[in-house]
Design a protein that fits this description.
This protein has 130 residues and is an alpha+beta fold. The chain is 34% helix and 28% strand. It has one domain: Heat Shock Protein 90, CATH 3.30.565. 28% of the residues are buried.
Length: 130
Amino acid sequence: MNSTNSSPAVEIVGEVTLSIPAGPRFIRLARMTAASYATEVGFDVESIEDLRIGVDEACTALIAGEHSGEIKMRFKSFNGDVIVEAERTEHRSEASELDEFVEAILDATLDSYLFETEPHRFRLMKSNGE
């Protein structure tokens, strides 16, 4: 069968939501979801790994030693970018700012990020191949 349209088909990946207990044992589920989602969007291996690392660091900072409540996450794609938004529920103490080491990792692995301490949440963005 011949096709007159030479453009490859682009499949749009829908939004994925994930809710995990706010504890270090469950961050691996966020990492795995980030990697799987980026794979579905068509990211290369290096970009998938960068996003996975960024999600790991951001979730760890969001928990900040306090293991109560949940982390509610949304993974979505827009113009080929992956956007990860997360918010922590039921936190008892005030979240601290990101330390320099975590900021350096997020700067190296993501295209942009926003980390807020009140409410406890973050927004990450990663482009493929960057």
